[in-house]
Amino acid sequence: MSKHRSLSYRFWAAIAVILGCSVVLGAILISTYYRELQATRLSERRLEHFQLVMSALNHLSAERGPVNSVLGEEPKADSPSRQRLTRFRANTDAALERLSPIPGFSQQLAETRRSLAHARQMVERLDRQPLQSRSPRDFRDVVQAMFAVVDTAQSLVDAAIGDFNTTESDHLIGTALVARMLSEIREQVGRMGSNIITSIAARTPISSQQRTAHDIAYGRVLGFWQLVEQQTSANTDPQIAAMRRAVNEDFFGRGMAIYRDILTTGEDGNYGFDTTSFTNQIVPTFASLERLRDMYLESATAKMKANGEHARQLLLIISTVTLVALLLELALVAASQTLLFRPLLSARDAVMALAAGKIGQSYGTPRGRGEIGSLFKALNILRGKLIERDALDQEKLKLTAQLRQLAETDGLTGILNRGALEQRAASLLATRPASQPLPLILLDIDHFKRINDSYGHVAGDEVLKETARRLQAALRPTDVVARFGGEEFAILLADSTAAPGQVAERLRNALLAAPFALETGAALDVTASFGVAAMAPAAGSWSDLVEAADQALYEAKAAGRNRVVARTAA
After folding, report:
1. d(CA 219, CA 559)
2. Domain for residue 97, yes or no?
3. Best label site of 92, 124, 240, 363, fewest CB within 10 Å?
4. Distance linking the first and last C-alpha atoms of the chain
C-alpha cells in the first residue's frame, strides 16, 4: 500500500472514529436527558399523588373538630355543629375519592375507609344518646376510633413516599418527609385537644394521664418542628419564611396559649370553654401550619416543573449540538483530527466515568468554541448533578435515621415506646415456633399520682427515668423493655426458657434495692406491681397476651401492690 493510500486510509479511519464517537456521545447525552425529562415528569405525577394523600390525611384529621363539637351538645339534627360535620365528612369523602384512580393505593384506601366507617358509626351511636348519659369512657372510645382512622391512613402516606424511592429525584423524598412532619405536628396537636375534650364535655378535672399525654405529644411537636425548621431554613422563598414566622406566632403562640389555659382551668373542671367554642378557637390556629405544608409542596412542584423545562431545553440543546458537530466534522475534514477527534475522545472518557459513578475533578473546556465548549459544559452539569445527588442521598439517610429514632423512642426515658414494642412483638410472634411461648411482663409504678402530687411532675419524670434505667440494668441485652404508657412499662423476654415470674421478681427487687434520689435531695422508696403472662403464637394474638398480662397486673394491685402475679394467656 502506498504512503498516500496509507495516509488516506488513516485519515478516513480517523474520520470514521470521530463520527462514531460523535454519534455515541450524542446518543448517550440525548438518552440521559431524555430519561431525566421522563423521570422529572414521573416525579411530578408522584408528587401530585403525594399532595392528594396529604390532603386526604388532613381532612381525616380535621373531621375530629366538628365531631368534638357535636358530641359536646344535645342531639340535634340541624344544629350548626351537625351541619359543619356533614360538610367536613363530604370533604373527607371527596378527598378519599380523588385517590381511587391512583394505582397502588387500593388496599390502603380500602382499609382507611373501613376504619373511617367504623369510627363514624361510633360517633352516630353516641350522638343519639342524651348528653348527660354520655360517659367519659364513651367519649374516649370515639376519640381513639378517630385516632385509629388517621393511624390507618398513614399506610397511604407510606405508599406514596415508597413510590419516590424508585425515582432519581434529588430532593423529592426530603420534601415529602418535611410535609409529613408538618402533617404530624398538626395531628399531634389535634390529638392533644381530642384527649382533653372528654373532660371539657363532662366538666371534670383533667387527669394526670391526660396531662402526661399532653406533655408527651407536645414534646414530639417541638421535636418535629425543630427538624422542619432545619430542613426548610435553606429555602429562600420569602413567603415560606413568612409562613414559618406565622406558625410560631399563631400555632405555637395563640394555639398553645389556649392549651395552657385549658390545663390551668381544668385543674378543678371550671372551664372557660365548651366543646364547640374550644374547637372554634383552636382549629383556626392550625391554618398557618397547613398553609406552610401546602406552600412547601407547591414550591417543590414548581421546582420540579422548572427542572423538567430545564431538562427539555438541555435535550434540545444536546440534540442540536450533536447534529451540528456531525455536519462540521463532514465539512471540515482537514481540521477534524486537531479540533474534534481528541476532544471527543476525552469527552467520551468523561461520560463513561460519570456513568460508572467516578466524579473526579471538574472538566476543563479544551481549545475550541461552539459545540465542544457546550459539550463539556453539559458534562460539568452532569458532574454537578451527581455530586448534588450524592450529598442529598446522605442527607436523606441522616433524616431517615433521625425520624426512625424519634418514632421508636420514648422522649422522656430514652427506651422504646409502645409502638416500637408492638412491632418487636409482632416480629417475635411471626418468627417464633407455634408452640414456643412468648413471655410478657407488665409493671405499673405504685402510687405514682401521689408522687406527682407530693413532689411535682419533675420528680415524677425523674422516677420514670430512674425506673427505666434500673429495668435495663437488670435485664439481658436480648430482652426488650419499653414504656407502655404513663407510669406503665412492658418487658418482652426473647428467651422462651426464661422463667418470667423469677425475672419479674428480680425487677421488683431492683426497684426496692435503694431509694430513688431526686435532684431536690429527697429520697423516695418506689415500688411497682407486676403482671406476668406467656402465650404461644398458636394460642392467640398480641392483644390476647397484653390482656392476660394486664389482668395479672390488675390482680397484683388489687392484692395490695408491690408483688408479682402470673397468668396464662387464653
Report:
1. 36
2. no
3. 124
4. 97
